[in-house]
Structure prediction request, 172 residues.
Amino acid sequence: ETKTTKTETEIEISEETIDPELIEMYNEVVAFLKANEMTAQASVEYDQDGIYVNIQESILFGSGSAIIADSGKSTLNDLGELIKQFENDVVVEGYTDNVPMNNSLFSSNWELSTGRALSVLRYLSEERQVNPTRLSAKGYGEYHPIAPNDTEENKEKNRRVNIVLVYDRQGE
Prediction:
């Protein structure tokens, strides 16, 4: 009986530690961004669920728009190459600030964040030939800020798109 308990504890500990394979992936992504001089456009983070490439909205879109700007296309062309180096599923996440959105295209930040995530997903699939079976999109609206929406600079941080390389531990 004691042995069973010990094994359970060991399993718990191993789930807490970040898999070396994930850290290796993270290092490859960081190296790619540096090599392609993209560290100004995108930052990278990771947790046990995957690698998050965070792109400022101003690079990808005009204000209140989900149409990808030319500067965004060049960033996404590079990121398309990065994504193709891996086989992981990719989730495109859209986020906004808390300024109410209401224009002829988007009645709320929900629509705007989802529309932007879908624009990036379609660009990666249609223009960069990323396999569509790997792709999904999520819109978080204004509800997951990474900074308080109290200054223009912070609002800018909250307007972002994350490209998540999903790390599947079950795949082993």
Remarks:
- Residues 1-7 have pLDDT under 50 and may be disordered.
- The CA atoms of residues 43 and 66 lie 21 Å apart.
